[in-house]
């Protein structure tokens, strides 16, 4: 998990670790299900070491929120450097790079060496992507309308759809190559 | 100039793209204009040949006659006729001429004739104009032209008059008597006819008269003989009548002149009977005027049908047109240009149709107005006046403009984007009809909903059938009356009037049939998509085709009912004389016949539509 | 529904549909064997022109096969006449189309009750059933509106309600999301899922991978024939995070 995400979540107000986790869970929905309980604290510790975050002890501990972890009693606050880092992050335009070249080369190599049928590879890959799509789509259907997670899931679905369409193009292309060769 | 060319080219393209529609349109308007032309031509014909004959023969303003008294047997006395010649206002006169009844025999046919004794010298008033051969000479007679035509007599022929053989010197026309067989009777005729029996002195008889004691004639022809030979040819030489022809200083006052001196009743039989020339005109042109009324009315009815036809045709292709308008506008055509293109198409069709109608009507006119040789110039072709041409062209253009104006304006006003996107006119919703139809059997449900999608087309259907049935009922009623008249009184001209009625009726029905087919086809195309969906939802082809058919039959039924009410009213309006209303079962039969006819006409398009495969339509409209 | 319900809602054997002849013979559907169990949702995928729509029309009785057999709920339908096919469409099949094919001049509820009226049900019953169905698909508040006043997703819901009108054995959907945006597609998918859960048998022809992925079974079609069949069930759970790039 990226440090900047946790930093940005602290930008609104100083928060406890468990509060950050809850906010993450809400925004991610089923996508965040696999998130480890201690993960947020690991990131927070790293951020603290880097001087982007400081901790405060509560003057008046709230007895209603009895945490199991002693670390939970701490409130995390952004330092000025931390705030600057958030501001920089928000303006960044980085985007996850789909690694299509690898799969493409896999097909080319397999065909060239006669090791495997590119169409078979495409087909297997397609099933795998469909399975993923099914999972994402079912998760999306289970989300209530307008939830943050639904939007994320829609993104996943649309990307998988795009990938599947590319696989279709691969299949078409390799089918014609086979029939003309 | 370039714009004009563009408009012309676009209009021509579109017409050529749909030749069948253009042809139907042409046919519809041409039928109407032909009938209208006929009606207008007839207008000019009536009275015209008579006028010419009157001038050529120094026609009389008053025909005065005295006959033997049929009840007392007292011989006619020509003295009162001589007195009349000296009456105030009389400027010229001829006669009195003796008149006698006889029988002619020629080529195995016999007919009654009236013989009028004349001299070789031309008379000042009523000198019959010879159209074939020569005027009277000793031992030869002259035959009235219409009568000669009917019996096939020509100059130089030999005929037998009361057993005496005599040569025919010539054939002539006169304005002093209605041409055969409507001749006025100067001697006794039987049976006494109401309409033209005034020619004999015994016409206006009282209730308690003795039976006539003298032999009488039936529909006599007219033969002029030398005055001194008259008795030789007469059947009963003692029973002579006399006739005098008078001209007045004011021909318009002839009726008043006659009225003042007419015999008034029993006991007045010895007074001369006076017939003003207007009465003869009336007789001569009676048939033509009737034909003209029929033709004009028929022309208007056909015009209305043509409008309905054009409206359906135009409306049916609105969807297509709208897209075209969108395209035209998208490439920079102004609304005016678009409207001009649309109008140009129909105006071209209308002009061609009116030309066809004028030519057709002009060519057909003689066949209807031809009165053989009854009068001078009677056989000459009736002429087309500039006014008639203008009227016909204006009506044809009016039909086209009326039927295209609204769609053209609407199409031109549609937003370009909407026109490009819109694939069809959205159907209309008639809520109560939908609600009502859901309570009816499936076939009626389909029918009412199909009809309800295009209420204006349904109304046009109603109007079209109303007009047709009105015309049909009026024509049937007229025909029935005509038949009754003909049975009593055979007359080739009346028969021809019957032919005119038949032609108009057939045209009317044919145009209505075309309308029905066009309307059904437009509907079928229009509901193609809805039909496919309905079938996908489980309607059988039989239900659908019955529904599509019924969608036409229901308005047709309404139209037939309205028409069978309107028909007698129309007939009443056209025929000012006493109208014999057709019996009720006729109207019922007409309504039933219309329903059957429309069902049959719509059957084929509806069946074709209902059996078309559904899948491609549902596929094609996914977009 | 009869007491002895066959296990299969639909079965075809050697189903073939050809167009033209000689050189220009086109095999739109070529010897297709398909079995659909009751309650199953089957998606047929393939490029446009692969014959999937024709297949749907054949099994729905909108078109007749050139050869082969079709069993619908245990009844041979491939040799039925037009009339019998129409009755079959009325009682056993419900169609959902890409273009919705709602009648624009009828209100939503009038559209939904139409199949029941065509089947000869009383107007009262047809209306009541239509309202219940509209309630089920969640557009009962639009019952009196004209279809043109509805969004695409709503229109397709209405179309689904109409397809369900006569409690069909089989609902056949032809590209049901083809005209819909992403959100409306989700809407329709949810509706299909509800139908699936209520035991409705569904055959969906589509090239939308999302529908394909959520079906019980996915059949791929090429040139009129089935080339692949997959069941996508089986756990891949817990990988959503990875799919979103949210690695823990």
UniProtKB/TrEMBL annotation, chain A:
It holds the Pfam family PadR. Gene3D superfamilies: Winged helix-like DNA-binding domain superfamily/Winged helix DNA-binding domain. The lineage of its organism: Bacteria, Bacillati, Actinomycetota, Actinomycetes, Jiangellales. It comes from Jiangella ureilytica. Residues 6-87 form the Transcription regulator PadR N-terminal domain. It comes from the Bacteria. InterPro entries: Tscrpt_reg_PadR_N, WH-like_DNA-bd_sf, WH_DNA-bd_sf. This is PadR family transcriptional regulator.
UniProtKB/TrEMBL annotation, chain B:
GO terms for cellular component: plasma membrane. The chain crosses the membrane at residues 294-315, 336-357, 388-410, 458-480, 500-524, 544-565, 585-604. Keywords: Cell membrane, Membrane, Transmembrane, Transmembrane helix. Pfam families: FtsX. Its main location: membrane. One of its GO terms (molecular function) is transmembrane transporter activity. InterPro entries: ABC3_permease_C (IPR003838), Macrolide_Exporter_MacB (IPR050250). The keyword Transmembrane helix applies. Coiled coil: none annotated. It is a multi-pass membrane protein. It is found in: Cell membrane. Residues 301-415, 503-611 form the ABC3 transporter permease C-terminal domain. Belongs to the ABC-4 integral membrane protein family. PANTHER family: ABC TRANSPORTER PERMEASE YTRF, MEMBRANE COMPONENT OF TRANSPORTER-RELATED. This is ABC transporter permease. The lineage of its organism: Bacteria, Bacillati, Actinomycetota, Actinomycetes, Jiangellales.
